[in-house]
Amino acid sequence: MEKPIIKKSLFYIFPGLLIFFYALAAFSGENEGTRNIKKAIVKLNKAQQVKAVIPVPKNIVRANVKYQGGVFFTETRKDKIKRFRCSSCHNNKKVSIQNAAAIAHADIKVVHGGKDKPLSCYTCHSQEDRDFLVAGKESKIDLDHVYDMCGQCHFRQKRDWIGGAHGKRVAYWAGERVVKNCTSCHNPHSPRFEKRWPKTYSVPQK
Amino acid sequence: MKKDTTSKGLFSFIKDAILWNLSGSIGYQVYLCLLVCLMLIGVYGYFIQFRLGLSATNMSNIVSWGFYISNFTFLVGVAAAAVMLILPAYVFNDKDLHKVVIIGEVVAVGALVMCMSFVFVDLGRPLQFWHLVPGIGQLNFPSSLLSWDILVLNGYLALNALIPAYIVYCHYKGKEPVGRYYKPFVFISIGWAVAIHMVTAFLYQGLPARPFWNNSLMGPRFLASAFAAGPAIICLVLHVVNSATDYKIDNKIFNKLRIIIVSAAVINLLMLFSEVFKEFYFPTQHSQSAIYLFFGLEGHNSLVPWIWTAISINLLGTVILAFNPFGERQVFLMPALVLLIVGIWIEKGIGLIVPGLVPSPMGEIINYSPSNVELFITVGVLGLGMFVVTMLLKPALIIEKQYEDSHGEHH
Amino acid sequence: MDSDKKKKINRRTFLKGAASAAITGGVAVTAGCKGKGLLGSSEAFALEFQEYFKKHYRLMTKTERKETVSRLEKLARLRQDITVNIDTTGPSENVLFGYAFNVTRCEGYMECVQACVEENNLDRKSNTQYIRVFEMEHGQMSPDKGDGKYFHMVPKEGHFYMGVQCFHCENPPCVKACPTKATWKEKDGIVVVDYDWCIGCRYCMAACPYWGRRFNWNQPEVPKEEITKEQHYLGNRKRVKGMMEKCTFCIQRSRKGELTACVEACPTGARVFGNLLDPDSEIRFVLENKKVYRLKEDLGTDPKFWYFID
């Protein structure tokens, strides 16, 4: 009496399981995921990636290099230097005080270039025209375009900075590309970040 | 269905059931009061937890599931284990087990009520529970294993409550239940019992984030440990019924259950050995949880005494049950069953859930032990489960006894 | 059997009826209480009552979204006496957010962690943090070997730092796990939580292989003056105890084109954020020109968070 019932139920159970496994397999099918992003090669309109209006930040300057997306901007630096213009002091008049540089620029400590070959002021600053930086003979670099100066040695970092792997954007990921300048983050006289206490800490879980 | 013409309708059935439940010896009244006290402790605990949030427990962002879900996991097994009585009783027409199958089903209902209560008290926002109800809420089916578990547990509860209710109701009216009405559901419930425990195992097994759980042996091992611990608990209930009521249970039944328990316990130990071998023959990063469980990590070893106790009493209980030193007298039967139950409860509860979550995916190791609130609520839920079992069992056994006495000669 | 079925149907219709009755009742109560100063909180109570019966965010119509936002804004005014602005901006076409983390550059200053806590109104009582920074000894690359609890001068010699947060997987296990569909992946790739729909079962937490989710074990507390008022429904709005929450790539900022708080706060430029579908973006430059790797790639979760080394 009972055996046929078992047989009958087996008759239903096996196709049922088969359908179940098929559904499960179909359900958890391959998902292409982030492999898809390589296919996204169409240039996007910078203004149309978000609906919000993105204000153009003040105090920026057009970089004289281009990144993969064309023109971009970087923060100006001259307006952040307190005693700019330098030529208001350094104006070819003789300075009669001894150790004048140490007194006038006591806040500056050059820790740049390693112990064996430390940099001096004139490695970067132009001796002739104090308002500019120097890049080899007779070519001057504006302080707003300091990346050209730094990039002479740190060419790898400069390449990454142009592309976007070094440094960071200012405030917006969308809209016109505006990035921090080298000296926005690094002190040019002592470019390595200082050791300090972290801003906060993680409380251990109970 | 034809309307019954006798005075014994559904209304008098319920009335009699309530009356039978409330009347009894002084010992029974004290026992009921005790259960109510346990439940009140639970209510008190839940009141605190409801006010403070789950921070009243010792769970944290690392051990995000604790004592509640541990007990839930164990009890799903107990519920599933009713199948070990249903299968021989209904399918193989075992006369002895047929007599106690109702007790197994009632224990399953009690276990399920406890399961659902444990899940409920574990929710962070219990008032939003209706979000799970299809129709007014949204159930993430079939994607989420938790939604499977909810459906499967409720279905099993319905099956295990309605089948015996129908049979008992028929017996109450002095009629033979119609096989064609309930037999199909019995067969469904057999498959369903396996399903509830497999789905609960899949709940953990389906998480690649947790290597300790993401293990294909989990489902079968859950079943094996459930088929050991569940019938063991049913055995204990039978023992209580045997000694406290005049519904006498034959020694043969205990022997049959003992054999079922021993076979399942041995398979469970075998699978445990297989798991331990995998974790410790060549320990990998994924074995960290097992090391934490068995030996402790970086001074965090709160689980170590528990798991070794569990394994020892598990082995001891299995050995005693297997060799049954006193033969028919069964002196050691009950203590051995208790050992086995406690062993599996530790190993499958806190010994399974906590190491799955520690070390955290980011490698952090902490200790976990339940807080007082968790213990209070657990005690309350346990009281609720026992209350449900008592309330269902008492009228059922009275009706069965009456029916047997009046119809006994026909069988 | 029949009577049982009937019972079930009755129960469902009853629940539905109860819900709609409650909503109309709530409306009536609100209407009745407007302008009455007898019980200052009765209006708030009525609003909360209506909030209780609201739908899943994704099923709401535009007007329903507007209504719930205005209720939430009103509640903030009534309960906390602050004016918040809750945004519901959806994802834009052709945007898929991605994130890269420069392991060489990070110095462990934890500025990002602090900025995130402030921006996202994280609970100050239990010190919830979405970001964890691990201090790791040279010679290893897995954060579970690192120290996430350091507090000393950084950077420490012989160590490097690695930040970890929600990785916004393309194939998120947490979404698959959630029993109520309260967490999902938006079209722009952000994995979000509908806080009000979450029931707090914490299954998603167990499913996340990156420990990216945080639970409100207690009632979260944020000092009134420190609350960020520019909010998003799926982002940094008020949460209560028992809800799951997580990093949303600062959805209230990123959907408007702004950088996330962690990127903006990072003093070393170790964090890169942008649109993966824009071939000119910084994040694409990193993916194409740097050697990148992701955590636990073997799990197939496909996170949109890459680590790279200069």
Please supply descriptive tags for the structure shown above:
heterotrimer, A: 206 residues, alpha+beta, three-stranded mixed beta sheet, two-stranded antiparallel ribbon, 6 helices, 25% helix, elongated, B: 411 residues, mainly alpha, Formate dehydrogenase/DMSO reductase fold, 71% helix, disordered N terminus
Structural class of chain B: mainly alpha
Reported for the largest beta sheet of chain C, the result is: 4 strands, mixed
Mean pLDDT of chain C: 89
Tell me the domain tally of chain B: 1
CATH architecture of chain B: Up-down Bundle
| Succession of helices and strands of chain C | HHHEEHEEHEEHEEEHHEHEE
Give a topology summary:
The complex is a heterotrimer of chains A (206), B (411) and C (310).
Chain A: H1 3-27, E1 60-67, E2 70-75, H2 100-104, H3 121-124, E3 132-134, E4 140-142, H4 146-150, H5 155-163, E5 178-179, H6 182-185
Parallel strand pairs in A: 2-5
Antiparallel strand pairs in A: 1-2, 3-4
Chain B: H1 10-22, H2 26-52, H3 67-80, H4 83-91, H5 95-122, H6 145-172, H7 179-205, H8 218-244, H9 251-281, H10 288-294, H11 304-323, H12 333-348, H13 350-357, H14 372-407
Helix pairs in contact in B: 1-14, 2-14, 3-5, 3-7, 3-8, 3-13, 4-5, 4-7, 5-6, 5-8, 5-14, 6-7, 7-8, 8-9, 8-12, 9-11, 10-13, 11-12, 12-13
Chain C: H1 2-33, H2 42-52, H3 62-80, E1 85-87, E2 97-102, H4 111-119, E3 132-137, E4 159-164, H5 173-177, E5 183-185, E6 191-193, H6 203-207, E7 213-215, E8 230-232, E9 244-246, H7 251-254, H8 261-265, E10 271-275, H9 282-289, E11 292-293, E12 305-308
Parallel strand pairs in C: 1-8, 2-12
Antiparallel strand pairs in C: 2-10, 3-4, 5-6, 7-9, 11-12
Helix pairs in contact in C: 1-2, 2-3
Written account of the structure:
The complex is a heterotrimer of chains A (about 210), B (about 400) and C (about 300). By secondary structure, chain A is of the alpha+beta class. Chain A has six helices and five strands, in the order H-E-E-H-H-E-E-H-H-E-H. Chain A has a domain at about 45-90 and about 105-110 and about 145-185. In chain A, the strands form two sheets. Chain A has a three-stranded mixed β-sheet with strand order 1-2-5, with no helix packed on it. A two-stranded antiparallel ribbon of chain A has the order 3-4. With about 400 residues, chain B is an all-alpha fold. The longest helix of chain B has about 35 residues, at about 370-405. Chain B has 14 helices and no strands. In chain C, helix 1 runs antiparallel to helix 2 (about 40-50) and helix 2 runs antiparallel to helix 3 (about 60-80). The model of chain C is unreliable at about 1-10, about 10-15 and about 25-40 (pLDDT under 50). In chain C, the strands form five sheets. Chain C has a four-stranded mixed β-sheet, covered by helices on one side. In chain C, strands 1-8 form a two-stranded parallel ribbon. In chain C, strands 3-4 form a two-stranded antiparallel ribbon. The interface between A and C is large, with 45 and 67 residues.
